[in-house]
Structures are given as structure tokens and as C-alpha cells.
Amino acid sequence: MSLMTRERPLVDWEWLRGELDAHGCAVLEGLLDPRACAALAAGYDAEEGFRSRVVMARHGFGRGEYRYFAYPLPEPVAALRRALYPPLAAVANRWAVALGQPERFPEEHADYLALCHRAGQTRPTPLLLRYDAGDYNCLHQDLYGELVFPLQVAVLLSQPGEDFTGGEFVLTEQRPRMQSRAEVVPLRQGDAVVFPVNQRPVRGTRGLYRVTMRHGVSRLRGGRRHTLGIIFHDAR
Ligand SMILES: O=C(O)CCC(=O)C(=O)O
Ligand SMILES: [Fe+2]
Predict the structure, then answer these.
(1) CATH number for the domain including 126?
(2) Ligand 1 centroid to 226 CA: how many Å?
(3) Chain-centre distance of CA 195, in angstroms?
(4) C-alpha of 101 from chain center
């Protein structure tokens, strides 16, 4: 999949960088078309292609379930992971400099994965999530080892209002010695939200400071909601 057509870039990376710096998150509208969304969501029930299934209530993660894809990832998922990584790595590197962190991220995802694999993080992290009425996802961070790529993406595969109600994507930002700030991200089917895994730099009146981010999903009031999660580091 190419995120750039000759006529029009599918993603305005300049704009995205500005949104991420200013607000910590950004929405890529219509990243997947409804057919691609439906095909991915229907794949949730496939017998093969996944390495594990997690029932959230069993772990205190919330209510609902998810499945981690196995390698090789389905082509649309692999293509998205590959295509979204380079521009996000540029943001990640700027953030690392701003936060005074020593790590730098290679330009290509294959090279970053090689680092993960060398560090023993070899299991794929892209996942499909499924929520039914009453389900929710507690605020969390998707950390799976020492190596953390600081941005991740979630694509809403279902149509709000039609397939489900409630179930909003929520981000919280915990500021040092201050009260936390919440953000609800409105998404339509096929929209992707880009957000920080763990921390991000915020420009305050007295310089840069570091905030801790968490994400989750509010309770579904009805219907069924599927999401595709794209995390760029692999898991131990
Ligand atoms: O279902 C959602 O919108 C959130 C999914 C999630 O937690 C993730 O992709 O890491
Ligand atoms: Fe998550």
C-alpha cells in the first residue's frame, strides 16, 4: 500500500507533525476504506493468522478481547506498519532530542524491527480488538520490553452510530505535579488516531516538560466495535 498517490498525498505529514507536537495526537481521516475495514474486522474470527488471544476481563484490562497477529502479518497490516513508520520516526527522533533521551530511531521499520529482535523482542504486536455492548478498555500503555517506539496508531474499523454506540477513544495526559487532562478523539470508520505510547514533550511557558500518556476506550453502549492496533516495537 502506498500512502502517497501522484495526485494527492494521502497523509499530510507536515500537518501531522504539527498536530502531534501541539496536542499529542492526530487523526488521519479515511486511512482505510470501508471495504478494507470490513475485511479486517471479519478476519477476527479466522482460525489462523494470530499468535494469541486475550480476554481483557481475565487480566483486569477491561472487558472485550483482542488477538495479536502472527508473522507474517496480513499484507494490509504489514503495509500500514511499514508506510506509517518513517514519518513517525522523524517525530520520535525530535521528541527524543527534546526529552534528552539518547535513543534514535532508524529511518526504516525493518531496521527498527531488527533492533527489537536483537533485544529479544521478537513477537509481533499488531492486533485486532473486539468490543461488544458493555465492553471497555482501561487506560493503559502498550509497553512490551525495553525498546519502545514512542508513537502508535489505532484504526477504527467499525462505523460509529451504525455498528456501535459509545466506545469512544480516550487519551489522558498526566502532567508533572498537575491534574491530568483527558481528550476524547472522535473517529469515523477508517480513521486512524496517532498517539504517544508512553511520554511526550510539551512546550510550557517555562520550557519543555514531559507528560505521561495513557489510552483506552469508554464503555460501549451497544453494538460491536472493531479496531486495528499498530504498534511499532515488537514484544518480548
Ligand atoms: O480499541 C481502541 O480504540 C484502542 C485500541 C488499543 O488499545 C490499541 O490499539 O493499542
Ligand atoms: Fe492499547
Answers:
(1) 2.60.120.620
(2) 9
(3) 6
(4) 22
Model-level ipTM above the cut of 0.90:
yes
Domain count within the chain = 1
CA 58 to CA 64: how far, in whole Å? 10
* 4 inside domain: no
Among the atoms of ligand 1, which is closest to the Cα of residue 227?
Answer: 1
Per-residue cell: 164: 456501535
Q: Which atom of ligand 1 is nearest to the CA of 154?
A: 9
CA–CA dist 192, 155 (Å, integer): 4
- Give the mean pLDDT per block of 10 residues along the chain (236 residues): 54 92 96 97 97 97 98 97 97 96 97 98 98 98 97 98 98 94 97 98 91 98 98 98
Look at residue 1 and tell me if it is in a domain. Answer: no
pTM: 0.95
Q: Which three cell numbers stand for residue 207?
A: 520550557
Rg (CA), the chain: 17
**Minimum-distance ligand to the CA of 152?**
1
Q: Which domain holds residue 128?
A: 13-230
In a domain, 202, yes or no: yes
Nine-digit cell string for 103: 535513543
**Does some domain include residue 236?**
no
Q: How much distance in Å is there from the Cα of 202 to the middle of ligand 2?
A: 22
